[in-house]
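idk why but the lab printer keeps eating my pages so im just putting this in chat instead. protein + adenosine monophosphate:
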Amino acid sequence: MFCPYDLHSHSTASDGTLAPQALVLRAAGAGVRVLALTDHDTTAGIEEASLAARQCGLKLIPGVEISVTWNKQTVHIVGLNVDTDNRTLQQGLSGQREFRDWRAREMADRLEKAGITGAYEGALARSSGALVSRTHFARFLVARGVVSDERKVFKHYLVSGKPGHVPGNWASLEQAVGWIHAAGGEAVVAHPARYRMTRSKLRRLFKDFIQQHGEAIEVVSGSHSRDDYFCMARHAQDLGLKVSAGSDFHSPENPWIELGRLPMPPAGCRPVWADWEIPFDSESNRRVH
Ligand code: AMP
Ligand code: MN
Ligand code: MN
Ligand code: MN
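predcted complex ->
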């Protein structure tokens, strides 16, 4: 049985390729019953997504994915059920986007030194204008014919030690979790297996997260293997954290995992949605009236 919850996805408001409405329609068509839109450092797509969700009977969870610098490394914290009108959250996100702007220009300067011109304009033209992500640079470099696919751009241009890399200077873990809580939301460590941390470093991240009263970790993720599901489920159970499930869907052309195809979290986990008031029984995935 596929998981009817997908609590991690992106739209054109950040680095996804589907507009919020198109994303919601695709999710509903794929059998998703509860979708969280979690764009990077912005909630600009939530209003359009909520409207579309009401029209097709899907439950939309307002969310966000916040970039964090923890121990000199970038990690992502998802906020679920956030009040998008909250000032503390919006001020925090606005600071993140200012850094993104500065970083985008800096990345373009560095790429220019490596012989690639016009990268800032090229990346900006591929974004909706609100926020520039490394993904937009990757799409520009592929379109320019510099490299053949997005993954290769990251590997050869956009990661540490490569010509277009600029180190992250994001929010602290404490700030990100604080903004999410200020907005009444729940905090989730996104795709923990993707950070390639040693077991002890990952435990330190989880312990720091618990100290900030973080709620859950993503166990089922589009960027996790089956082994990762079970490994992360054990961490969650050990540490008394709830678990989340999300595809991290960005585009139909390049899905980590297609919408509506996530498995249920391993048995014995406490889902982050266990206490939510949702109008259907997630065990049977049937609507209860
Ligand atoms: P940013 O937040 O602007 O630094 O960009 C991070 C985004 O880049 C992630 O959310 C992914 O969507 C994308 N990304 C990161 N690494 C890779 C990769 N190796 N291949 C493709 N996309 C990636
Ligand atoms: Mn992304
Ligand atoms: Mn992420
Ligand atoms: Mn994501």
